[in-house]
Amino acid sequence: MKTVKITKEYIELQQLLKLLNYISSGGEAKYYLKENKVYVNDELEDRRGRKIYPGYTVKIENDTYKVEW
């Protein structure tokens, strides 16, 4: 499991995808989430604006990330 550090209260899923280089712009998030399975705390997620807080786990493709402060 990899760690992602954020400095705000939360990060939106589309911002996280961009930060981790899965997409190059926030506008691509909608299409990425339709074509790929992304799990937030083991639940399938398709909302690009989903708020991700420290302590959450996010699974993208074959990688799992733990969000921390």
How many domains?
Answer: 1
Q: Can you count the helices?
A: 2
Outline type: globular
Low-confidence stretches: none
Supply Rg: 11 Å
CATH topology: Structural Genomics Hypothetical 15.5 Kd Protein In mrcA-pckA Intergenic Region, Chain A
Q: Name the CATH homologous superfamily.
A: RNA-binding S4 domain
Question: Topology, pairings included?
Answer:
Elements: E1 2-5, E2 11-12, H1 13-19, H2 29-35, E3 38-40, E4 43-45, E5 51-52, E6 57-60, E7 63-68
Parallel strand pairs: 1-7
Antiparallel strand pairs: 2-5, 3-4, 3-6, 6-7
Describe the structure.
This protein is α+β, with helices and mostly antiparallel strands and 69 residues long. The protein has a single domain, classed as Roll (Structural Genomics Hypothetical 15.5 Kd Protein In mrcA-pckA Intergenic Region, Chain A), CATH 3.10.290.10. It contains two helices and seven strands; from the N terminus they run E-E-H-H-E-E-E-E-E. The strands form two sheets. Strands 1-7-6-3-4 form a five-stranded mixed β-sheet, with no helix packed on it. Strands 2-5 form a two-stranded antiparallel ribbon. A hairpin with a 2-residue loop joins strand 3 and strand 4. The longest helix is centred in the N-terminal third of the chain and has 7 residues. The radius of gyration is 11 Å and the shape is globular. The two termini are 16 Å apart. The model has no long low-confidence stretch (mean pLDDT 97).
